[in-house]
Amino acid sequence: MKQTNSEESKYGNAMKYAAVGTQMMVLLGLGVWGGLNLDKQVHSSPLFLIVLPVLALFISLYQLYRQLMKPKK
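The structure assignment produced for this chain is given below.
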């Protein structure tokens, strides 16, 4: 059974944005994990735990913006 272009486009967009959401969650998780480990090593209580996830969030939002502004083929 062959899919039409609208079905392929619909599922392609859904998978693209699901991947962006997954990437955002992974970056935030790595930011929290890295912040906790750096705070333990440097003994700077919540500094890196706050800074790294916020940095990861900005990076994720920038990547989402680039993905949305990419010209369609």
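Interim note for the steering committee: The chain has a mean pLDDT of 85. The first helix runs from residue 5 to 42.
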